[in-house]
Amino acid sequence: MFWVYSFIASFTVLCLPIIGLFSKKIQQFTQKRKNAPLLIQNQTFSPDKKLIWFHCASLGEFELCKPLLKTIKSNYPNFELILTFFSPSGIQTNSDLDLLDHIGFLPFDTQRRVRRFLDKVNPDVAIFVKYEFWPNYLNQLHARQIKTFAISCRFHKNHFLFQWYGRWLLNELKKMDHVFVQNQSSFVLLNRYQFNNVSISGDLRIDRVIENASQPFYNAIVEEFLNNRPCFIAGSTWKKDIELLFPEIESIYDKIIIAPHDIGSKSVEFIKSKISTSYQTINQLDINTIGKTQILIIDSIGLLSSLYRFAHITYVGGGFSKRGLHNILEPIGHCKPVLLGPHYQYFPEAADLIHKHIAFSISDKMKLRQTLQHFKENPKLLASIQKEICEYLNENRDGSKKVFEKISTYF
User: SS3 for 340?
Assistant: First the structure.
């Protein structure tokens, strides 16, 4: 199967410029990956230092592994750390990049590009975050006897790896030095397929959201807007989320913060069209009247995860699309209950939290109104749920520490 995969991979790379003529998204994808400073072949690596290579698909995976990166950097300051991304969106951040000695795009998974990359970088350890299983990279890493790990993985029996057409790649995973999974069911499943290199470390995102929530935060505009009153915060919202929320939330909460996923003018104008009360946007506001305004629209990026700390209760958008639900662990990191749309089945952490009754699926306006009124009128119930969330976080923290203790024995 390797030769079939390698042929398809090489053919796909050749076709990308042609596909880009018909797809603006693909065109932007290929153009951004030509950014000269982010090309591995343009970087210099020290042959005298140990090098740990992390690979992430995108920004979310980078956020997940930051606590582990920090631990390695503090314990092994002389090691070089390289981080590669597949998606250009992973590099659209300047947060904690000082942890890294090198950062760049992962060359496409063709045999020639893989050999050239590994000849250039020559890592001592390779760490793949979540589901970035590139066959030619794994095959070459094993052939070169480079220590290889996968972290924060989660598997289910219907995953393609466990079908007849995916077994060849599953065998490459068996050759890894260790696979860290998020939960017991993944551990049992891999053991069923004769894996003897597996352990449970939990979801490493929990360490990251706990770390983020512990950081001090002050924003004079938000403080003036809230004036110590209970606040409803809806983050990463889409059109269907806004249609669900308005006008119901206006009659229940005096203070509302909306942070749309898309901060473009069309998205913000759509939100404004649904509002029947006073509102301002954070980029165009009157500080003299912000305290009397009911709704604040966050039309900028980078604030949402910190703002959740001010919430009485939160709503996370994207749940009206089967695979669109956004990160519900960010408000959970602040011990805030989460409401979300009806489609959460592809997000195991959402299913876990709903099962524990610390997150709640909302599909219509009546259910929304009843749930918000119930929480507002029962502060003891809200306090009890917040306590349960904090206990959940404590039970599932320190996954990064478990991973570090294991992989550091290979350094």
Answer: strand
| Separation CA 345–CA 328 (nearest Å) | 13
Query: What tokens does 133 get?
Result: 């299983």
Q: Which whole-number Å values give the CA distances from 400 to 11, 64, 101, 200, 207, in the listed order?
A: 38, 9, 20, 11, 7
Tell me how far apart the alpha carbons of residues 256 and 193 are, in angstroms, rounded to a whole number.
50
Q: Mean pLDDT over residues 197-222, rounded? A: 93
Q: What is the pLDDT of residue 47?
A: 85
- The terminus-to-terminus CA distance of the chain in angstroms comes to 33
Residue corresponding to tokens 């696979």: 179
Residue 270 has a CB neighbour count (10 Å cut-off) of: 16
Phi-psi group of 236: left, alpha or beta (phi > 0 → left; psi -120 to 50 → alpha; rest → beta) = left
- The span from the CA of 388 to the CA of 337, in Å, is 10
SS3 229: coil
How far, in Å, CA of 346 to CA of 252, rounded?
31
Q: What does the block give as tokens for 343?
A: 């489609």
- Rama region for 335: left / alpha / beta (φ>0; ψ in -120 to 50; rest): left
Residue 170 has pLDDT above 90, yes or no: yes
Q: Which of 147, 158, 149 is nearest to 199 (CA)?
A: 149
Distances in Å between the Cα of 155 and the Cα atoms of 90, 162, 340 are: 23, 9, 23
For residue 330, give both structure tokens: 């960010």
Of 297, 248, 292, 291, which is closest to residue 270 (Cα–Cα)? 297
Mean pLDDT across the chain:
91
Report the distance separating Cα 291 and Cα 225, nearest Å. 4
- pLDDT value at position 92? 58
Cα 175 → chain centroid: 27
| Residue of 60 and 257 predicted with greater confidence | 257
- Cβ-proximal residues to 267 (8 Å cutoff; 6+ apart), any chain: 239, 260, 261
CA 311-315-321 angle, to 5 degrees, is 160
Q: What percent of the chain has pLDDT over 70?
A: 98
